[in-house]
């Protein structure tokens, strides 16, 4: 990722709307490559390259923030009413800019429950949860906006500072066993690098409006937890069957166990040629372990 190919130039200016976990990683990766990157958060912070955008409090970015912007990545989830905060507050403004690209981070929750089967971008979305229906509505609104948007559907995001190691350290771990249940996941570095790869090669690769970014090996949560305990050299607690654990789970935690799917990355990794840094949870967690 050291050479900047022709599709991106140092003249590009990026705005990252919603500089949370993924947005922050993306911003840092771009800055290391020498790009100008401004990031938003809902309240003022010390970072001179950060600005405030809060759709719910109606705090809009100052107009100079948009000067010369060529690329935008939105990492902001739907608001409590199901509206996309960026489209709701900034669509008119965005339409006045000479944007080359907008990325939108969505979720693989829009596919719903496939009973463990593989699911890809050509499969019709079939959201099971209300929040995933809202997300699908936001995706549609982005597509219909006429803006040059590319949507990235993401499974569970993990990486340094946000992985099973933190759950273990903070006593938040629950070792739950549910037969045949798998989860898909993606290391945050692969989200950033895959998107930058697509931008660097934009002129030569066919454009797909919706792309999954997931690793090669969806698997059970218990495998992941066991692997972390092995790396820590500590015995894993005895698993609890899902049926026994479910009444103690929060509604959001429980909802994740109600869907079972394997998210295909063939479009990204075979058709478009992106090479994952962390092909599976073992490689990704080793990286997290070094940063615990
Ligand atoms: N976490 C996962 O495993 C996962 C999986 C699949 C998809 N996703 C989706 O992928 C995207 C990025 O995920 P993430 O985990 O990196 O996100 P995150 O850390 O939760 O960051 C979300 C960002 O959105 C900002 N934000 C939230 N509501 C806003 C509003 N009304 N107006 C302006 N800004 C607002 C937050 O501002 P502050 O910085 O001020 O808090 C934060 O910067 C999200 O849409 C998320 O739902 C996440």
Topology diagram in text:
Blueprint: E1 13-17, H1 21-32, E2 36-41, E3 50-52, E4 71-74, H2 85-95, E5 101-107, E6 118-119, H3 130-144, E7 149-154, E8 156-158, H4 164-169, E9 176-177, E10 185-187, H5 188-200, E11 210-212, H6 221-232, E12 240-241, H7 242-245, H8 251-257, E13 262-263, H9 266-271, H10 281-290
Parallel strand pairs: 1-2, 1-4, 2-3, 4-5, 5-7, 6-13, 7-11, 8-10, 9-12
Helix pairs in contact: 1-5, 6-10
Explain this structure to me?
The chain is α/β, with parallel strands linked by helices and 292 residues long. It has a single domain, classed as NAD(P)-binding Rossmann-like Domain (Rossmann fold, 3-Layer(aba) Sandwich), CATH 3.40.50. Helix content is 33%, strand content 16%. It is built from 10 helices and 13 strands. A 7-stranded parallel beta sheet has the order 3-2-1-4-5-7-11, sandwiched between helices. Helix 1 packs across helix 5 (188-200) and helix 6 runs parallel beside helix 10. The longest helix has 15 residues, at 130-144. The protein is globular and about 55 Å long. 37% of the residues are buried. The structure holds NADP nicotinamide-adenine-dinucleotide phosphate. The site of NADP nicotinamide-adenine-dinucleotide phosphate has 23 residues, from helix 1, strand 5 and strand 8.
């Amino acid at each position: 990722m050291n050479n900047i190919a022709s599709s991106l130039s140092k003249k590009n200016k990026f705005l990252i709307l919603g500089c949370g976990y993924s947005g922050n990683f993306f911003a840092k990766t771009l800055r290391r490559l020498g790009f100008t990157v401004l990031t938003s958060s809902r309240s003022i912070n010390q970072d001179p390259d950060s600005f405030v955008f809060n759709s719910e409090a109606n705090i809009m970015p100052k107009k100079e923030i948009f000067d010369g912007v060529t690329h935008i990545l939105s990492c902001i989830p739907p608001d409590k009413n199901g509206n996309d905060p960026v489209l709701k507050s900034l669509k008119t403004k965005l339409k006045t800019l000479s944007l080359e690209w907008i990325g939108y981070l969505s979720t693989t929750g829009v596919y719903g429950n496939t009973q463990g089967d593989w699911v890809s971008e050509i499969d019709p979305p079939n959201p099971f949860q209300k929040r995933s229906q809202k997300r699908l509505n936001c995706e549609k609104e982005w597509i219909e906006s006429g803006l040059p948007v590319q949507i990235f559907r993401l499974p569970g995001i993990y990486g340094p500072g946000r992985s099973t190691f933190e759950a273990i350290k903070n006593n938040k771990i629950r070792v739950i066993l549910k037969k045949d249940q798998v989860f898909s996941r993606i290391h945050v570095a692969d989200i950033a690098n895959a998107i930058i790869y697509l931008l660097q090669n934009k002129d030569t690769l066919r454009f797909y409006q919706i792309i999954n970014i997931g690793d090669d090996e969806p698997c059970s949560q218990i495998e992941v937890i066991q692997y972390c305990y092995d790396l820590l050299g500590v015995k894993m607690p005895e698993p609890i069957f899902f049926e026994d654990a479910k009444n103690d789970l929060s509604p959001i935690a429980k909802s994740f166990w109600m869907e079972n799917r394997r998210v295909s990355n063939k479009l990204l990794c075979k058709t478009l040629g992106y090479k994952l840094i962390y092909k599976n949870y073992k490689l990704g967690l080793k990286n997290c372990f070094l940063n615990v």
